Amino acid sequence: MSPKALDYESLNENVKKAQYAVRGELYLRASELQKEGKKIIFTNVGNPHALGQKPLSFPRQVVALCQAPFLLDDPNVGLIFPADAIAKAKHYLSLTSGGLGAYSDSRGLPGVRKEVAEFIGRRDGYPSDPELIFLTDGASKGIMQILNTIIRGEGDGILVPVPQYPLYSATISLFGGSLVPYYLEETANWGLDINNLRESVAHARSKGITVRAMVIINPGNPTGQCLSVANLKEILRFCYQENLVLLGDEVYQQNIYQDERPFISARKVMYDMGPPLSNELQLVSFHTVSKGYWGECGQRGGYFEMTNIPPKTVDEIYKVASISLSPTVPGQIFVGLMVNPPKPGDISYDQFVRESKGILESLRKRAQIMTDGFNSCRNVVCNFTEGAMYSFPQIRLPPKAIEAARRLGKVPDVFYCLKLLEATGISTVPGSGFGQKEGVFHLRTTILPAEEEMPAIMASFKKFNDEFMEQYEDHRGYSRM
After folding, report:
1. pLDDT tens digits, one per residue of 436-450
2. pLDDT by residue (tens digit) across 87-142?
3. Beta-bridge mates of residue 135
């Protein structure tokens, strides 16, 4: 009897090829241990609220009123909700065609897209067109939508930074394209070398791959670096010369933990550079409410903005977006609130600033505690987390540990991370899930555990690591860059 359509052996091969390490073997093992009663610290995914970050009060108040509009008719509503939250809820409800239970336009509510365009204009100093902004269920859906539009088959390549966020490798596999890696330089604080980019493109073309787009993740995931203006200019010139679409994953733009390199959008730098680049280079930028000091991962609110994309292409993207009918409406309202938060003089302004500053200041401290903690460990080196939500230390594994892993049929950093999980309950992601240079090993952890728990977590990590190194090191050297 021939296999049925949903039997494993007859599935779409692209589905089987797609790998997503953030929820891979380590995560599944951690989930098993949790069911057995072991305390697990899930640092494998940037999920702030799951690790105890409290939601900001104002946006939750507004969305609560939008979800339950009958509360607005209650004479006591002003005793529970501040007047500016009530006004904002009425504003967002007026933008819908029937409240949060009704579909919106497939691109999202026009009123919210207008607020996003105004935010981008204030941020960059150049106006933005709401018609070129699509609201999406988190940034991931937007990224998938654009990659689906670009990739025509396995002959099409997408330049992706390595180490990379596995959304890209998984999605490119799913759509049948080819990932073209360009390596970030760890010894230069995960900087980008333009010569390396050129080599990556030349190598891909020698294999018959047409490179169509380039991804930048700024600030970086998993590497946590912030791109300088000089680096961004090089990237933009390179994309212009090579006729590539630039995909700017800028979801961590609010997560900055140093003052030397603030976030600057690729769009702003492009417009600052002027014509012909500024009116010819195709750019799509992505943002979300899941990151920053919002951390509203479960609300699934995001957007992408297109620059220099032809109207006929925009129409095609709209057509494909329409197949899903509309992005989640509460998520869209969260996007509106993120780009248009309380202003000075508003009743909720002081509380909003106090809460958001408290989160960012704590994240800055945690980034430092974690970097210092890793660098105090034997055979571990770690660049400072300049931005985003992750630490990506290099683990210099002794040859005996690499051999022990190979005997078990494990990638060496998977072996290390599984041992770490069993010993401490800390659930991380092995660096091999993000891509790394041959013979070099890492792990990725979020910096999101509660600040007061961080010293104990790092002490637990250090104890495990140093005992592991003592066990496997033969004191004649170790694997290094």
Report:
1. 788 899 998 988 888
2. 999 999 999 999 999 989 899 999 999 999 999 999 999 999 999 999 999 999 99
3. 303
- 315: β partners: none
The pair of structure tokens assigned to 441 is 């090993």
H, E, C per residue of the chain: CCCCCCCHHHCCHHHHHCCCHHHCHHHHHHHHHHHCCCCCEECCCCCHHHHCCCCCHHHHHHHHHHHCHHHHHCCCHHHHCCHHHHHHHHHHHHHCCCHHHCCCCCCCCHHHHHHHHHHHHHHHCCCCCHHHEEEECHHHHHHHHHHHHHCCCCCEEEEEEECCCCHHHHHHHHCCCEEEEEECEHHHCCECCHHHHHHHHHHHHHCCCEEEEEEEECCCCCCCCCCCHHHHHHHHHHHHHHCCEEEEECCCCCCECCCCCCCCCHHHHHHHHCCCHHHHCCEEEEEECCCCCCCCHHHCCEEEEEECCCHHHHHHHHHHHHHCCCCCHHHHHHHHHHHCCCCCCCCCHHHHHHHHHHHHHHHHHHHHHHHHHHHCCCCEECCCCCECCEECCEECCCHHHHHHHHHCCCCHHHHHHHHHHHHHCEECEEHHHCCCCCCCCEEEEECCCCHHHHHHHHHHHHHHHHHHHHHHCCCCCCCCC
The residue written with tokens 């949790």 in the block is: 34
How many residues does the structure list for the chain?
A: 481
- Which tokens in the block code for residue 267? 């769009």
Query: What's the rounded Cα separation, in Å, for the pair 408 and 464?
Result: 20
- Give the closest residue to 132 by CA, choosing from 367, 335, 378, 308: 308
Q: What residues contact 423, with CB distance under 8 A and at least 6 apart? A: 464
Tell me if the pTM is above 0.85.
Answer: yes
Condensed to tens digits (0 to 9), the pLDDT of residues 173-216 reads 989 999 999 998 888 888 888 899 999 999 999 999 999 999 99
**Separation between Cα atoms, residue 358 and residue 362, nearest integer Å:** 6
